[in-house]
Amino acid sequence: MSELILALLFLPLLAAVTTLLFRETPNIRDGASIGIGVLTAICSIQLFEMVQAGQSETLVLFAFAPGLSIGFTPEPLGALFALVAGCLWPLATLYSVGYMRGAKEKNHTRFFTFYAIAIHAAMGIALADGLITLFIFYEILTFSTYPLVAHKGNADAKSSGRIYLGILVTTSVTMLLLGIIAVWAIGGDLTFREGGVLADHLDPRFAPILLALFAFGIGKAALMPFHKWLPAAMVAPTPVSALLHAVAVVKAGVFSVLKVVIYIFGTDFLLETRASEWLIWIACFTIIAASLVAMSKTNLKARLAYSTISQLSYIVLGAAIASSIAVQGAALHIAMHAAGKITLFFCAGAIYVAHHYSDIKDMDGLGRRMPITFACFALGALSIIGIPPLGGSWSKFMLMMGALDAEHVFVIFVLMASSLLNLYYLGQPVIRAFFAQNTGETGFSEAPVAMLIPLVITAGMTVGLFFYADYFILSFKGVTP
Amino acid sequence: MNFLLHAPILQIVVPLLVAPLIILLRNRHIAWGLAMASTLATFLFTLHLFLTVNETGEAIIYELGNWPAPIGIVYVIDVANAYVLPLIAGVSAIATFAARGLVNAEIDIRDHSLFYAAWMLTIAGMLGQVATGDAFNIFVFLEISSLSAYALVAIGAGNDRRALPAAFNYLILGTIGATFYVIGVGLLYMVTGTLNLVDIAQRLPAIGDTHTGFAALAFISLGMFLKMALFPLHFWLVPAYSYAPSVVSALMAATATKVSVYVLIRILFGVFGVDFPGMDSLLGVVLLGLGVAGALIGTVAAITETDLKRLFAQSSIAQLGYMAIGLGLATKSGLAATFINLFNHALIKGAIFLALGAIAAQLGRVTMSNIQGAAKQIPMTIAAILFGGMALIGLPLTAGFISKLYLLRAILEEGAWVVAVFTVMSSILALIYVWKIIEVAYLNDRPKGAPVLTETPAQWISAWVLVAATIYFGVQAEIIVDAAFSAADLFIGGNQ
Known about the structure:
The complex is a heterodimer. Chain A is an all-alpha fold. Chain A contains 17 helices and two strands. Chain A has helices at about 1-20, 25-50, 75-100, 110-125, 130-150, 155-185, 205-215, 230, 240-265, 265-275, 275-295, 300-320, 325-355, 370-385, 390-405, 410-435, 450-465; strands spanning about 60-65, 70. Chain B has a domain at about 345-495. Chain B is about 75% helix and about 0% strand. In chain B, helix 4 (about 110-130) packs parallel to helix 10. The interface of A and B includes residues 170, 181 and 182 of A.
């Protein structure tokens, strides 16, 4: 198993190296990235199956101070996140090749290098054995994605990059680090443990404050009011938005929140002390407010960004409810939302490359010219809205069950309202594309094949995930069912 | 080897004797050669002391002229100063290496031997303060290092006349500090009848709660606050660092204040002890409060600066604030955090000031406007500043992260949440000034007509040795953390 851990961590770095080595020959450079990506995906599947079968192993890379080490312990949640990031990475790389060439972006080598480093960081977060390892990779992820966000290098990209880095670094270096050290000082241990490390050490009165340091300090979870970096990040090329700001980066955030809730606080402790109840309200507020903002956006990527903010709070919500089914639903939502949202972003990028449209009002009648893209968009949208037979319906269903279990009935209404809002703002582009009259040209005109293949695959995943959802339902040790 | 038995005194005598030799020979090449050789030798002596003390776990007691303690002066090398000595000597050796180029660029050729003589005296004085076990001997070395440091700052007048008032202010305030210290020592001598630190510590409890003892504590602390530039007694530091020759700024920023912090620790915790009357308010109110204020105000002041030497000098005020916070906690973890911080910050600031020096040697001053787009022309030098800046913020995998981690843990162990929040705020504000430098140097293009900057490995290697150390001790902090905790254990044993 330790070979798999090392492979998952270092294959992406290897891809970064090969990208740099073959910078003169773009086809070999990109081919190598995709090849290594496929290997990573295979490793991530194997690791997930081994962990689901109950295996576990800790790999300590090195100790850098007494009691502090960089180490990795795959457990169900981390293996799931590694699986999601690992499997979507080669698809996104293939898509990026089409996008970067089709949209005539510059500096491909730098782009693919940092893209790979970001996946390395995401893997480090996924498999981290404790808070300190998680924190270090979390910061690597922040800094490695900055050049991707500011890729275009113009004034807009620079100022967005500043917002991006500013919010993510500030929240993590202030609140998250303070929270981590507080856990260290109070619990005496930074390792993730079944049932948490704080239960017998922390005065329940302080638990909500400590939880707040984590919930807001993990800025990548985009909980309001620390969500502004995500719309700012949309200035990046679309493949970045697709893989990183719909999957790897933002999922790293909510994943960390879940990890902290399950393995640091312990769900039993939170349920008992009701320390996380305030977080339910914040998450509900973010779900609704972000949806409302999304409705007002006519730029497709901006709308998707706010939709992501809203969807991320589903996962935070599950963590805050802290009942067994809610936590499982939240974990499942990491996978379900990833497949749906990456499809939507892939489609947005395809539309941009083929027709240079980024505003929804320009897309009237476009569905007849790009039927494949918009069909896939429709699938992704329906999955996120949560309509069977698409994957997203399961996680939403489990979250509702979990809320009911913990007797938070209003949460069900919030989730239902959110679905309606989703239906409006994600359904609208599809309906306009297929049913509105277009005035311009007609005729079949899709994006390059290198972009179409990945988005068809991910759209297919949203369907597949509905039927194979039980494969992804995790059983957590230390969480009372 | 037998002569290594004399390492406790050799490390001071060698640089001390090299100084007059340099003046006698009056040759600038030989001067540098001697300085380099003697600082390297000194570094090896201190390293030997560190290894020996850590191996045996016992203090080395060296009696000068074989006169035992109450009569003669003894040097006591224990786990605390054996940890500080190699730091001072090592940074001095690296700075001396860099001095070759920087001194040629910034100082009049006729002054070179004088410069190196004063340089060696400063180094000898700093090592002496740390090594000696005698309160008055500390004062002697304090004056040796300070007087020569005033001269070193004043030599900067060749570049910028403002170095003269800076050196004068430094001299006045430094002398007040030293005088306060010696008054305190005099009072202690009055009540205990000894100058040996160990003896004073033994006899003080019997004195009990007297005004004399209390006044001694107040004088010594205040004197040392001045010398370590604790806010609000820091006004000499910023001009002195920014107008001194670059290599002097580097040496002083890295080591001078650290030595004073060490002496303060030695006197407060080693002589008076935490149970001394009035100590709890001195530590818990004065040091903690001034530390927090210094950490915030130093950082905010750094943000407003556009001259990079001034900027990083202000950031030193903030870092000294962190060190004061660690002391103010009056716990073993707090003291250890300060020891860790003292070590790491010396490396970080040394690296930054050496890199700034490489630019200052070409441009005279280093300001935000004249380093625009410099990263393309002098990538290694700017990268050294960037790494140093990241370590100042305390980003993971740098030594600064370790410092911050242990300081915050020490604070939170005491449940001092307010202090923790202020400390964290200060560290995040540091991001602003570091980011400003990154944007100016990396994201802007070099304006047309701006002087072309150059760099050779000889110019950046010394800064990069320290950068490498910053990263190394960020990834392999075990040795530093262990040494810091055993040093802290010496002063505050028992608890935790």
